[in-house]
Amino acid sequence: xxxxxxxxxxxxxxxxxxxxxxxxxxxxxxxxxLQDEEPAEFGADAGDELAVxxxxxxxxEGNAVSVQVAEVGEGPLDARSIEESDxxxxxxxSDGAHVVTVTNGVAEVTxxxxx
Length: 115
Description:
Elements: H1 2-17, E1 30-34, E2 39-44, E3 49-59, E4 65-71, E5 76-82, E6 85-91, E7 96-103, E8 105-113
Antiparallel strand pairs: 1-8, 2-7, 3-6, 3-8, 4-5, 4-7
């Protein structure tokens, strides 16, 4: 009995660790529903051209959510207000960790290489 409890607890702990990558696509980009001010981090290289797709699910106040793509620790590369849905391209300026954040609501966000 004790052995099963330890095994079940260990399995649950391992699976819980996987939750940190939820919303990341296999290549490290974003495909997730983001809550108000919940960032999703991804890696990118300088010169990468990324397609950002946003579908608004909920707006807290006013008539739009704000979506921002930024290099971690730096200012935004792109920031815009979106009322319903939008798709646009962003060019990455430097190698490293980047983040996409939704404020003032909830939105489905996808960030992937331009094809």
